[in-house]
Amino acid sequence: MHRVGTYLTAVYFAPSASWRPPRYNTKLNRMMMNTPTTAPPLFQARIRTRPEDFVVEEIQATEPDGQGEHVWVLLEKTGCNTEHAAHCLARAAGVSRNAVGYAGRKDRHAVTSQWFSVQLPGKADPDWSGLPAEEMRVLRSQRHSRKLKTGHLKGNRFRLTLRECRGDPAGLEARLALIRDRGVPNYFGPQRFGRDGANLHKAQALFEGKMRVRDRKLRGIYLSAARSALFNQVLARRVEQGSWCRALPGDVMNLDGSRSHFLAETVDVALDERVRIQDVHPTGPLWGKGELETRDQVAALEQAVADGESVFAQGLVEAGLKQERRALRMPVKGLSHEWVDAQTLVLEFELPAGGYATMVLAELAQIEDAGTGGMEE
pLDDT (tens digit, 9 = 90+) per residue, 130-165? Predict the structure, then answer.
């Protein structure tokens, strides 16, 4: 298997009155958070050299019904993150930030369209003309009875332009066909871990009592980073085994497009076929308190990863998070490509909620990301 981008995990640092994350450690980075791909890259390319090279359209789970105290706003954003847009909407509507909701955070270095909700009981629809025109524009606005909450979306559509493609992409057609047939490893992307792994360093500081975090949102970010790192390590081992896209006895399987799970105590022809057609997927742990749902060799692998990162695993348990599951593979729907010229490739595809487009790119090419640091959910 080929190894690509890596992220930092636990490192020791001395406590101080004004704590800052340690400097980036390339060697530790490679050793601790390798994310192997299923095959070597076919070529090299650059992404996000300009915002319009990374276009994201949210696939909403619910359409606004035209009535209610919440105004749902479909906003196109360019070069700004979701939280910044939420604050701008709140100011324009004359409400607190807490009155604004959204389903998922989107990339900063991109052109993205997503829905927001603004709670305005007994108030008229706002005048959105005060929004910064260079960063955002309102595509649609309609009333709805409920606030938009995190996770309430089906997925995202992507149109990505890869520039300065170098190498021999002769195997591109075959690689794209393979991705359509079996999906890609469902790693959490580097955005989850912060610049140079800072969120993971802070998570360790939090777990070891070297740092206090009163802000619930920041605390949640650090806990999510630790949880994601453990998941990625489990998935990396399954990729190395070649079992990330097939069922093993003792796997907990996820029904595609739902939160439903079931234990596969044995694996038969029928289950293999359901996995092949991407009706169900093996899962990995989002660590927390409680017993693992998996059994046999699968449970042993997952427990071994947790034991190897005991500070993170125990910290997540003590933080009160409960064991959850996430699919080990990610279906890639509607995948198509077009060569604009000899060095410019455009890819289009859809991913489920929580999927990272950079993980699709990693299965194709060695990518230089000019927009590293953006958020993608």
Answer: 899 899 999 999 999 999 998 889 999 999 999 999
Q: What is the pLDDT of residue 106?
A: 87
Residue 320: per-residue pLDDT: 95
Amino acid of residue 96:
S
Would you state the pLDDT for residue 2?
A: 55
DSSP run (H or E) holding 156 = strand 153-167
pLDDT, position 111: 95
Residue written as token pair 């990396």 = 236
Q: Which domains does the chain have, with CATH numbers?
A: 2-44+172-330 (3.30.2340.10), 62-151 (3.30.2350.20)
Helix (H, G, I), strand (E, B) or coil at 348: strand
Alpha-carbon distances of 256 from 155, 181, 264, 353, rounded to whole Å: 13, 14, 15, 12
Q: Does residue 107 carry a catalytic annotation?
A: yes
Residue-level pLDDT at 9: 28
Which of 107, 196, 251, 369 is the catalytic position? 107
- Rounded to a whole number of angstroms, the CA Rg of the chain reads 21
Please name which of 354, 216, 222, 218 lies closest in space to residue 284, comparing C-alpha atoms.
354
> Which segments in the chain show pLDDT lower than 50?
4-28, 30-32, 373-377
Side-chain-facing half-sphere of 144: CA atoms under 13 Å: 20
Element (H, E) at 311: helix 310-318
Report the residue count for the chain. Answer: 377
Helix (H) or strand (E) holding 136: strand 136-144
What angle is formed at CA 246 by the lines to CA 227 and CA 249, rounded to 5 degrees? 85
Torsion of CA 149, 150, 156, 161, to 10 degrees: 120
